[in-house]
């Protein structure tokens, strides 16, 4: 995913399905370096990781 698209997803009032390594995640924060984000698994609010935005994948729009 491109950084700009990740920002659009965060700013949107709609809910998007995003995955990292095939696992559904939430994007918590995009970092100022324009390359990384803090994410957490949808099922675990406490386990957060810093990942490359390029490794995130938009799956589909949740209606």
Automatic annotation (TrEMBL):
GO terms for biological process: asexual sporulation; sporulation resulting in formation of a cellular spore. It holds the Pfam family SspH. Induction: Expressed only in the forespore compartment of sporulating cells. Keywords: Sporulation. It comes from the Bacteria. It is found in: Spore core. One of its GO terms (cellular component) is endospore-forming forespore. Its main location: other. Belongs to the SspH family. This is Small, acid-soluble spore protein H. It comes from Lysinibacillus telephonicus. The gene is sspH.
């Amino acid at each position: 995913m491109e950084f700009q698209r990740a920002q659009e997803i965060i700013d949107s009032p709609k809910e998007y399905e995003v995955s990292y390594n095939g696992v559904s995640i939430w994007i918590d924060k995009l970092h100022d370096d324009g390359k990384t984000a803090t994410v957490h698994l949808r099922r675990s609010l406490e386990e957060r990781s810093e990942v490359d935005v390029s490794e995130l994948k938009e799956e589909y729009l949740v209606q």
